[in-house]
Every structure is written in structure tokens, then in C-alpha cells.
């Protein structure tokens, strides 16, 4: 389970059913019935786009599995607080150069990071993109929100000093191609930062747990959709193949909850727990109903059981958070 996630980002393979597809701890999990969909219009700074409603959740398009509704926007705000707590109040794992001129935030979601960076660097131009941007009110004048799919051709006329990608595990079917675009659109010595959360685990192994069933089902659904969840997209070799030099790479295990003796991890853990519990349904609902033919009530039932497991005393769940800093070095 790769949650908390962030941004609204884009994602079928076929094969034999796995144990996760067949296993149904409770009644009514798999179903041949397809998800019921409808649309509603949402305004976006003077324009309108159709939000797809499936199983009472709103989505930006017909392919990406993460929702973009009010519930998800609240979760993304908590996730942003979690990242800043992990980074001890900073906005990036790498110090952003003082003279930075152009910054690109891919998969900006509700735009918390882009707005905060724009406030700290008032002379820089910040472009924040997503497939469903919701521009907040009272944003700094130096940040612009654009609807854009990063999997499509990049048409920026000028290069960037800093490109930021956060919480987009599972959003793209071709990460190497995305990294190559980022490399081409960075200035010489420019910086790419990629940050994400991995799969929730427990310090005390849970045999035949609902968490393991949930993780297995999500992975099976991702394989069918042509995406992956977790931290595979942050492999050094993938970035190096695009031409990048890895400057920093660190994974921090964040205990979920407030049991950590480290004050910083205690705050981050509280935020991560909230985002994780809320994110269980967000990550799995469309994946499992669309690609494994589960019923929505079966997905929600499993999510509730996973929530109970994660809150069980002594389980001690944690989630890895990885930061990678890559540079475009010109020899």
C-alpha cells in the first residue's frame, strides 16, 4: 500500500488471477458488476472540467486511480504537513538555490508545496501542473497553476532550475520517459527532486493479515493497469539512465502514530497515520473495482479491517518515505 500519496498525476496487462484477486475475507468482494460512473462539472479559474463520479468518489479522468474530490483534497493537505514535518519545516530535501528563477511542480494536487515555495522565493516563477488543478484563492502572484498531463509532450519554452515531483507513485506508466523529459527541460546543473511514500509495513509481522491482502490486491490491480505502487520508480538506475547524477538518496521510516520518542517523527507520524487511514480507500477503490472486479462495498469493508489492524496495540506500523536529489551535470 503506497499511501499517503499526493497530486492527482496518469496511469492493462493481462494474466492469471493471483491469490490476492481470488481471496475475499468477508462477503461480496469480487463481482462481475462494473463500477457505476457519472460526471459533474467543477470550475477551475474560469474554466470547467468534468469530474467523473465512481462509487461516490470523484476522479479527474478515466484512467488515473486516485480521486480528486473534497475528501482527497483534505488528505493531501495533511500529507503536505507530514512531508514538512519529516523535513523539519523545510520544503525540500535539498536546499533550493537562493537565485532560483524557474521551478516546476509536477502533480501539484492542491498546490500547498507550490504556494509555499512561491512565498519563500518571490522573485522566482513557479509553474504548478496537474491533470486537475484546483487553484486556491489568494495565491502569490509568482505561481501559475496549469492543467497538464506530464506524460504528454512538454512544451515549455524556457528551462527550469528546479523540478519537483512528490507523491506520484502509480501515476505514470513510463517513469523513464518522464525523467528524460525532466532532464531535457532542466538548465545545466539543475536539480530534480523526487519524493514519495512506500508500502505500509509493521514491525510485528502479521500472518494472513488484512494488510497483506490489501497490499497484494493493490499490486495485482496495478500490474493489470500497467502501473506500480511503492518506490520502484525512484531507483537510481532509472534516473541515471536519463542522464542524471544522484546527489542524495535517503529513505526514512516514519512510525505511524505518536509512539516515536523523536518529537519530529511523532508529529510526522500523527500526520502520516491520518493520511494513511484516509488513503486506504483512495488508493484501492478504483483499482480493485475496475481491474479486479471487486464490489465497492467489499473494498470499503477490507479498508475498514485494515484500519482496525493498524490501530491494534503492539502492531507498530510504519511507512518508508524516500527522497532522491538528482542533478543535470554537464561534464
Please provide a brief summary of the model.
The protein is 32% helix and 24% strand.
What does this structure look like?
This protein has 331 residues and is of the alpha/beta class. Helices cover 32% and strands 24% of the residues. It is built from 8 helices and 11 strands. It has helices spanning 19-22, 70-86, 112-120, 175-184, 210-225, 236-241, 263-291, 296-310, and strands at residues 37-44, 47-54, 57-59, 102-106, 125-130, 143-147, 160-166, 186-197, 201-202, 245-255, 317-327. The strands form 2 sheets. Strands 4, 5, 6, 7, 8, 9, 10 and 11 form an 8-stranded mixed sheet that branches. Helix 3 (112-120) links the parallel strand 4 and strand 5. The termini are far apart. Mean pLDDT is 86; it is low at 10-48.
